[in-house]
Amino acid sequence: MWYLAEILFAQPRQADRRMYACESCNVLLQVISAAEAYDKAQAWA
Hints:
Strand content: 35-45%
Largest sheet: 2 strands, antiparallel
Distance between the termini: 20 Å
């Protein structure tokens, strides 16, 4: 079965900066279960 993981990366807010970077990523995973997809998405991140 195929699962799509939506992953968001963001820098912690810093006092001396007005803005900070963030990035989103979609990852397609072929696994047997949703639990396995969750584990693989965490490992990928």
